[in-house]
Design goal:
This protein is of the alpha+beta class and 441 residues long. The protein is built from nine helices and 19 strands. The chain has helices at 60-76, 185-195, 206-210, 213-226, 250-259, 299-317, 332-343, 407-412, 425-434, and strands at 2-8, 17-20, 34-39, 42-47, 49-53, 110-118, 121-130, 142-150, 153-159, 162-165, 227-230, 246-247, 265-269, 280-284, 290-292, 320-323, 353-357, 374-379, 386-390. The chain has a seven-stranded antiparallel beta sheet. It has a six-stranded mixed beta sheet with strand order 11-16-17-5-18-19, with helices on both faces. It has a four-stranded antiparallel beta sheet with strand order 12-13-14-15, covered by helices on one side. A hairpin with a 2-residue loop joins strand 9 (153-159) and strand 10 (162-165).
Amino acid sequence: MLLEFKTKNYKCFKDEAVFSMMPAPKQKGLDYSLLTQAAGKKDYTALCSSVVYGANAAGKSNIVSAIQTFKSIVLHGNINNVPGNFPNAAENTLELIPNNSLPADKPELVCFSIKFIDSDLLFDYSLAIDLGSFLDSEYKRSIKSEILKINEKDIFARTENKLEIFEKSLKSIEQYLLPDFKKNIKLILSYSEKSLKETDLYIINGFKTMVSSDISTFFYDFFMSKLKTYYQTFAVDMYPTYMNKFYEDSLLNEAAKSFGINSNKLVFVRQKNAYDQQPILCSVMENGRLIPAINFESYGTVRFVNTLPMFAQVLKKGGTIVMDEFDTSLHPMVVMDIINIFHNDEINKNHAQLIFNTQNPIFLNNNLFRRDEIKFVERSDETNCSELYSLSDFGTKGTNARKGKDYMNNYFMSKYGAIRDIDLSDIFKKFVENGDAPITK
């Protein structure tokens, strides 16, 4: 269960951006949007959903990008570039990360931190890295700070080549420590310091092999299995990985029929012996003929079928989905229904969370989201940097953020910011009069 994510000097976020999934103080209403989970001797409460608004190029996608990039760093255990061609280029090309408004001769640290609950433990982990300036691929990178707290107790703090393990706090995770660790703590600490690499995460490397493989595994598995990030969600294409020539899912077809497919049913088809190729989603016609679904069904239907397994998996196993433009090509009623499923504690029994950004103001509804679930991103024309804030930050007394207020109308009236007035009439007039409009094919 995600409680909080922070980043600083990442792309358009020069100042620290705090994405909180913890309820705002004195926020009332829609209590079904709250999740409660124990960690240590305390219970913690989190929101089960959140939606992010902002104008084009405000920085909404960079929230998803930051979480996904941090996830990639953790999974690879270092801050080196990773070979690959991903939709989010920053995921594997870290010189794209630093805020480009910073002076090239005075680079500042890129910072990430995350707070989440997994395996009945509250993890609070922060990382500060020196990547140089924007696009400086030759810069010698290094980790300047790495700190882990568990159940609000300090476990280790790493500053460059110095490492401190807090022996008193280890009592809270004693059952997870490696055999004989406590007897050899001084020797292990000395060896850990000497073996630290500037680009390697201690929690994934030395901590796992010398202090606690269990804690390191819990931490890694959260990023691997529980934190699902989807950048450019319109490109998501999910399919069964283990199948023969045909694969039919009765529940998927039941959902597709309720959505409104044009064919008899949908199946996945793999060409004979083509196990290295992606199966194709096909429509089954009345006469049994197969047609690629993209050639027969609406694009919205295909998108719905491709994204449905994501929600099914996270609701069944628990976890957090973070999606960029989740509602693209989907009818708002479908999106609202999925949001309400995450709010339904009879279905959402495993603390699943949904976070997405959108341009559609129809979800600015006080019967759908709490004020603390509605976030905004606004980009300054002067600094070209972005700011992240919540509707609950406006307070309530005498403001336009009171429960019962028309959030959507107030948003369009620019009462909350994060919106831009656009008038393209003069530009199109020049195109028409001058005949120099861009050539299209």
